[in-house]
Amino acid sequence: MRFIKNLIAIILCCLTAFFIYIHHAKITKFIMVNFVYKNDNVIQTNNQYKRGYDWNYVKTTTDFTPHKRQDILNIFYTALDDGWNELTFYCPDDYPGCLNDVKEITEEDYTLSNINNFVQTFNSYNTIYVNVNNFGRVHIEIEKLYTESEIKAITKKIDEIYDQIIQDKMTDEEKIKTIHNYIINHTVYDQERAKMVIDRTSTDFKHPSNLALGPLTTGKAICGGYADTMALFLDKMKIKNYKISSDSHIWNLVYLDGKWKHLDLTWDDPVVNTGENMLLYDYYLITYDQLTSKNSAQHTFDETIYIEGK
Predict the structure, then answer these.
(1) Degrees (nearest 5) of the Cα angle 220, 191, 296?
(2) Nearest-angstrom CA–CA distance, 221 and 92
(3) CA 135, CA 298: separation in Å to the nearest integer?
(4) Contacts of 119 (CB under 8 A, 6+ apart)
(5) Is residue 201 part of a domain?
(6) Are residues 297 and 161 part of one domain?
(7) Which of 119, 215, 222, 304 is least enclosed, having the fewest CB within 10 Å?
(8) Is residue 134 very low, low, confident or very high in pLDDT (cuts 50, 70, 90)?
(9) What does the pLDDT read at residue 199?
(10) Residues 128 and 161 grouped into a single domain
């Protein structure tokens, strides 16, 4: 009888060892995810700049276990839109291509920079750091484009300008036009900065002309500065909008009276040889057909991403 018991114990030990050997990767991952990293995926509360909009390209989510590439895009968008500084999620076993998709999305700037255009300006990122390990753990750290002190100064300036030039009786279109004119009349295109960007002699995205700091503090800007400033005023007016970009340019897309319109302050503030400060309406709340009819290469955008802009 003792021999049989010992034999059964040996057999059970062997079966257990064999089971562990066969499934050691899953067991190890289970232990790491549920015990070692159990507090990693705590969801933060959103900040005051959250928009909470769902777009055709990306949508907010409460499910941080991705099962396809679109789920990963939605996770990154939600983290940015909510204003989080970090986030951890895990790739499940039933999505074998998950880590490869994360690496593809994060190792080149194209996808994340486009997602950045859908979030509120103060929640946009300067740099995203992504750490991936073999247990399927994806840890994201987000460095914001605007500092708290810059946000405070910009918000104060926008409130001052808004109170000076906007009247309650104005329609939304009249308000947009008034702000469009104010920004252009108080800003000149920063040709020196633009040349540095084109020549790639500077990769400093924090330069004032790239940001709303340009039009609001220095009076100089390139397209990023014009677009960020206009977006902040549109948000203040609670007008739905996002930034839309091509390979070399960025402008605003505005939802007004049930339709999406393109709004490009940069091209409405042209640089002329006479040095005259001009204000145009060539790209003021125009339709997709009007935009494409101008045959401008700088306004050719990815229509699979900026679907509302079509």
Answers:
(1) 105
(2) 45
(3) 43
(4) 51, 77, 80, 81
(5) yes
(6) yes
(7) 304
(8) confident
(9) 82
(10) no
Looking at 129, 144, 159, which one is the last position of a domain? 144
| pLDDT surpassing 50 at residue 34 | no
Beta bridge partners of 251: 244
Give the C-alpha separation, 228 to 146, whole Å. Answer: 11
Q: Which residue has the higher pLDDT, 310 or 33?
A: 310
Q: Are 287 and 262 in contact (CB under 8 A)?
A: yes
Quote the pTM value. Answer: 0.87
Res 21: pLDDT: 47
Whether residue 30 contacts residue 90, with contact meaning beta carbons closer than 8 Å, is answered with no
The domain spanning residue 243 has which CATH number?
Answer: 3.10.620
Task: Note the pLDDT tens digit of each residue in 96-112.
Answer: 999 999 999 999 889 99
Task: With beta carbons less than 8 A apart as the criterion, state whether 140 and 88 touch.
Answer: yes
Domains of the chain: total: 2
In angstroms, rounded to a whole number, what is the distance separating the alpha carbons of residues 150 and 212?
Answer: 9
Q: For residue 234, give its domain range.
A: 148-309
Distance between terminal CA atoms of the chain?
81
